[in-house]
Structures
1.
Amino acid sequence: MSQPPAMPASAKALFIAAEVRRRIVGREWRQGDRIPDEAALAVTFGVARATVNKALQLLAEEGLLERRRRAGTRVAVDPARKAVLTVPIVREQIEAAGFPYGHRIIASRRSPLPASIARRMGLTAGLTALHLREVHYAGNRPWQLEDRWINPHAVPEIEAVDFRQLNSNEWLVRNAPYVRATMDVSAANADRREARLLDIRQGQALLIVNRTTFNDIGPITSVRLAFQPGHVMVAD
Amino acid sequence: MSQPPAMPASAKALFIAAEVRRRIVGREWRQGDRIPDEAALAVTFGVARATVNKALQLLAEEGLLERRRRAGTRVAVDPARKAVLTVPIVREQIEAAGFPYGHRIIASRRSPLPASIARRMGLTAGLTALHLREVHYAGNRPWQLEDRWINPHAVPEIEAVDFRQLNSNEWLVRNAPYVRATMDVSAANADRREARLLDIRQGQALLIVNRTTFNDIGPITSVRLAFQPGHVMVAD
DNA sequence: TAGTGGTCTAGACCACATC
DNA sequence: ATGTGGTCTAGACCACTAC
């Protein structure tokens, strides 16, 4: 039954994934149930086992199925509550909204790493690093605060760069590709300095993103972004 | 060159992905460069093209490569700044911290959908829906506020459920599997009611997660979670 | 129109966890 | 011990799009 009907000549795996998803949502296969094994489904759908495998791996990534060797494939009891967050590129975000992008360096100096940042980067506190603070503007309205620490050992060329001309993130992205990143999201009340820089009232709730990037050698940079009040990050 | 050395008998695709990643990070292949096509890499690494395909698709998902038919595969100019956020299960989170989990229903009634929620769910405002408000506790400390709207057409059985016994999310997860979800993250100052329920000062910054789930038929539920001040969501 | 990635197949062997 | 998913192969055809 349920032979793939007039297929778009490609997309069998997607068709099978959709059909399995339909059976789960339709409660035909219930949470915790074991579903037929790949070989059986391959026969059912009239495709190669590799195609079934691809379909089921998709659903497992999605969190709808749990797969274990020998134990078989089961409908997940609790579909994972996962979502992909994309940290927007400030400039693009502002320009997409139709405003001219601008930024201003508040501070740029070599300082000893505070313990909290050192911990994020896996370095020892007190190590001398480059500390940058910037404000990003949409037109003449402040839009986002950026507080960045850069590991000079990871990016020696950084010393020569003039960030008054260039957005630090854009330079890093082009010149120090990263392999791994950690990220967290929280909320904080704007302190007096932040309120002044963002032109808002002290105490307003800001969305905070902390992000640290690494390459094979070690940590590259750790940045704290403070978004304007009301800013919403949309996940897929 | 770079033949996979003494391989673990499986993981050729991962080995190739790692090697390509190394060449990118080592600036051997630079941002915007076109890399050899699949057939060539298959010869280079001494594997089947399907294996190279899998490796490159992995890196493309990761954001390190951009692939287009006919145009070939290029090193991404801006490695996507993506991270997977997982909304924790309240109960697990609290119990993992060693506290007894508890929850209290603040309100449970049928009300017309407000416009903002209706928009999220793709329904018309004013439609009668089930509105639940709960507080989740870690021991006797309030931990999280939940404000949930449920589409009764999607889940008719909901009317009979006694949520004083059961956490609404856990019931929904087991009884109304979803297929698609939207999610966003923001920050807000606690209003008077929220401050009272969370036992904090009015105005403190709260991390807010809005999440709406859908199945093939339509929207199931839309929930607004307000986390305690200081709460951090970690992404991978 | 031709080169590139996307997908599928049929078969094989392997790793692993349960039975 | 054995059944299940994980992965690989060699070959094929197709879809897209830059040329």
2.
Amino acid sequence: MKRPLHLEEQYIHGIRPKAPFNFDATMHKPDHFPSPDNEWEPGVRWQTMLWKDRLLGLKFMNVGSVDDPSVRLSVWAQDELDKQYSTSVIDEIVYRYNFNLDLASFTASFQDDPELQAVIAKWRGMRPVNYSSLYEYLMIAIVLQNATARRSVSMMMSLLGTYGTSLSFDGKSLLAFWKPRRMNRANEEELRALRIGYRAKSVKRVTEAFVEGAIDEDSLRTQSKEEQTKTLLNLYGIGPASVWYVLFDVFHHWDALDYISPWEQKIYSKLFFGTEPGNPLPVEKLVEFFDARFGKYKMLAVHYVWEDVFWRRATGDVPWLDDLIRL
DNA sequence: CATCAGGGCCCTG
DNA sequence: CAGGGCCCTGAT
């Protein structure tokens, strides 16, 4: 590993997210596995970003409150950034972090659902976030497949350690994602040596699709959910489980809950029906239930319940969860 | 030591 | 459309 690239603070930008805004529940997701591309502590998140071929360090600071939100974003880079570039970074961040999301109608539609209403109130202003690009998100999705969380972490570490770039800014040393063009030059054996197994082929093929322009995040954003689904499923190594995460996290479809994997099935069944892990509800029943109860906001609603249980787990509140997530 | 499932997906028949 | 195989790891 080369020594880290040193970044300098280039500019500071004030962001006023749409109120209500819960900084910590948005800027930290306890269900995500730890990744060396970011760090969080209450009120602050550091994040690396590869944007338009340039490596950035981002530091978000909470300088407001839930009802009067204000975020101070400082952007670090190797050299000066022009106005147009700076604006594009902010626009992209506002999109990825859903800073302008209006939660009013979502909240209002569950006035008569006391259970969910309580969770929404507890995490008032929390929004779903995708901290990375579509390409990066798909890389993460690939290392999640058919592996326990611990192994996913080690695969991600070795990929970032080999192909990523170490950045130092604000006293932190974090890894940034690789450029797809760089990964495209790696061969499959080289990747397999990093112990990512058969996923090496998926990493190669998905990378190739991005480098060759067969898939483009910006144009996909303007397309329908059905078109997005079709394009994503077409990628080698990307199947239904990965696609439904992308539709929700990356493309902001709040109803994207049509597929439930076995480990999620167990947790949902326990959370909503109190069943034991060995005896979960059938996936079709769960999907029907979520659709009937939460409608067009079903995934967003489930996100609130899901994040709540992972926050509570962090305080030792949910002992049964550890057995189901196998860290 | 062997066997197995895991935060899926592809391919085959 | 069901089911075997896939890289590797830790659990049993």
